Amino acid sequence: MLDFVYWPISAILWFWHKVFSVPFGSGSGISWVLAIVFLTFTIRVLLVKPMLNQMRSSMKMQALQPQLAEVKERWKGDQTKIMEETRRINKEAGVNPIAGCLPVLVQMPVFIGLFHVLRSFNRTGSGPGQLGLSIEENRQLANYIFSPTDVQSFLDARLFGVPISSYIKMPGDMYEAFQPVDFTRMNIVLVAVPLIILTAVATHFNAKMSITRQRERIASGKQKSMASAQMQSQMEMMNKMMVWFFPAIIVFTGIFWHIGLLCYMGANNLWTFFQQRWIFAKLDREEEAEEEAKKEAKRATAPKPGVRPENPKKAPKKKRRAAKQGNLSIDQVAGGDGKTDAAAGETGNPVDGGDSGTRSPKKNGGKRK
């Protein structure tokens, strides 16, 4: 059903295994673990740009929270109108909430695909998803892009004395696929438990790093807090889930995770730690550059020291009337020394209402004051 995921995952894993087989040998546990680690890095490299865009989109959405809260308050009870206005605001701001979910949506199929590919190296069990093959049949059957020789190499590889695809709750009858059976369940526990704990702790601290930065930005005024108490409560709940609930899930479900899958999660958390630091620093630099550009624009448009800003409403009536009739600006009319009036006369645009382009004498006995 998910062959479109399983085949690419197995191809990337096969490529890196061939690379590391050169220095370490094809049957070495190190070459298989490094292949899994670099499979993780390959996927994460492809997701760097989407992740960066997702973080930028998240910052824009946080800045839009007051507007979105106002929309909900204004159109309370009219969900259709709220959705229309929300889409309009997001479009004007260049925000795509769906695109922000791309990195998470991509990583989940990768996790599932790697879990399936690693499990499919040993198909001797009779449980869910197993084929119930004999030991000989299993060793002679390909696993997606991996040839029977690659399957045998994987089954014979060991990490700290246990198979790469073993896990704590693996049924005892599946041990026979890994010949020779020179390990026990306790050996698997001694390798898997430290990896589970390290993965859970790394997940905890990566989430805490992100939440700490968010709180620091709110405290410094760079980011606005949630507009309503309900939204603030929801955010706090999500933060607690990221910091405590997700690591707890890893601890309680880790007994079903293969050693290779735990290596994948460890490499994924290691990448996340350094990537988050790099992305946060890059976003901070972009934000500082944007603020500096805004300040520079204000300085460029501000009046020079000692010069009073022009206020068209305070201009003399004569100059305002001349500007209106002669299609001139107030600054042109205020050019001084009568030059503007002369220019208006030459172009045939009367200044005081005349028809010939010359100035008419004012009404006071035909004499000028």
From TrEMBL:
It comes from the Bacteria. It is found in: Cell membrane; Membrane. InterPro entries: YidC/ALB3/OXA1/COX18 (IPR001708), YidC/Oxa/ALB_C (IPR028055), YidC_ALB_C (IPR047196). GO terms for molecular function: membrane insertase activity. The chain crosses the membrane at residues 30-52, 97-118, 188-207, 241-267. Residues 32-279 form the Membrane insertase YidC/Oxa/ALB C-terminal domain. Residues 291-369 are annotated as: Disordered. One of its GO terms (biological process) is protein insertion into membrane. It is a multi-pass membrane protein. Its main location: membrane. Residues 314-323, 360-369 have a biased composition (Basic residues). Required for the insertion and/or proper folding and/or complex formation of integral membrane proteins into the membrane. Involved in integration of membrane proteins that insert both dependently and independently of the Sec translocase complex, as well as at least some lipoproteins. Aids folding of multispanning membrane proteins. Interacts with the Sec translocase complex via SecD. Specifically interacts with transmembrane segments of nascent integral membrane proteins during membrane integration. This is Membrane protein insertase YidC. It comes from Corynebacterium pygosceleis.
